């Protein structure tokens, strides 16, 4: 495995897998806190989307890099 292959794997991991993980964590948190615990406040709902927002913010530079590279 060359450095170029490792760079490609890391780039794909950060650009695609981290946002999917953030989405899964957000959906599980919404299911638990809204449907099971009954938290219907707007602040609760906004707080539950933080994993998705942060993971997208982490991946955004890599999305831009992929667009420029291709």
Helix content: over 70%
What's the total count of β strands?
A: 0
Radius of gyration: 16 Å
- The chain-level structural class is mainly alpha
Number of domains: 1
Shape category:
elongated
* Distance linking N and C termini: 22 Å
Main sheet makeup: none
**Regions with pLDDT < 50 over 5+ consecutive residues?**
none
Mean pLDDT: 87
Short synopsis of the structure:
87% of the residues lie in helices and 0% in strands. The protein has 70 residues and is an all-alpha fold. The mean pLDDT is 87.
Can you describe what's shown?
The protein is mostly helical and 70 residues long. It has one domain (3-69). The chain has 3 helices and no strands. It has helices at 3-36, 42-48, 50-69. Helix 1 (3-36) runs antiparallel to helix 3 (50-69). The radius of gyration is 16 Å and the shape is elongated. It starts with a helix and ends with a helix. The model has no long low-confidence stretch (mean pLDDT 87).
Write the layout of secondary structure elements.
Elements: H1 3-36, H2 42-48, H3 50-69
Helix pairs in contact: 1-3
Keywords: Membrane, Transmembrane, Transmembrane helix
Transmembrane segments: 12-36, 48-68
């Amino acid at each position: 495995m060359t450095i170029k292959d490792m760079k490609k794997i890391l780039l794909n991991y950060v650009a695609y897998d981290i946002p999917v993980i953030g989405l899964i964590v957000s959906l599980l948190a919404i299911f638990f806190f809204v449907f099971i615990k009954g938290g219907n406040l707007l602040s609760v709902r906004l707080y539950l989307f933080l994993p998705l927002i942060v993971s997208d913010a982490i991946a955004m530079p890599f999305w831009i890099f992929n667009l420029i590279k291709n």
